[in-house]
Give the backbone structure.
Amino acid sequence: MNNAVGLSRRACILAPPLLLTSLVLPKLASAGAQIEEPLIDSVRNALSAAIAGSAPVEPEFKDTESRMIYHRWLGAMSDRLKKKIPEQQARIDFVKTVWYESKRAGLDITLVMGLIQVESDFRRWAISPVGARGYMQVMPFWTRLIGDGDTSKLFKTKLNLRFGCVILRHYLDREKGDLFMGLGRYNGSRGKAVYPEAVLGARKQWEFG
């Protein structure tokens, strides 16, 4: 997120005057804002159901080859994220959760990784000027619409990724699978090219195999 395009959409670290400040305050992000729209009951219920439940500790695979591919992918993604998430166990848990939530929502993992890179630069505690939170920069109103109203939970890795993937799936479905329009809707900039192009460019860094 260092070029002109990226800086306009991605999380920007504000340099605090004191090191102590950086330890106690969450870093701001400059991502856009999902726009609150009225949801019909059937959609609200479907999204609420999609948010509910918990991820399994470990994924299940149909054969040994699939499991080996998954573990190679897991290792490769973990290596690429060392500078972003230094603590090994936190990094592995994050990558596993991205894999599961992406699959659960029917999303391409590279797309989700690219979106996280653009939205928060893989910073769990990122907050945008408009209040979007966490890795996938989820707006707090979503916890009221389809959750239990507790916005603090958006800083929990599993729940943030669950919300983000469900919301992205919802927007893509609204746009009949159109990535350009769906990504723009996620960012609150529907119809503008800057954000979709940034995400689609970033996703290339997370290709595997």
Notes: Residues 184 and 190 are 4 Å apart (CA to CA).
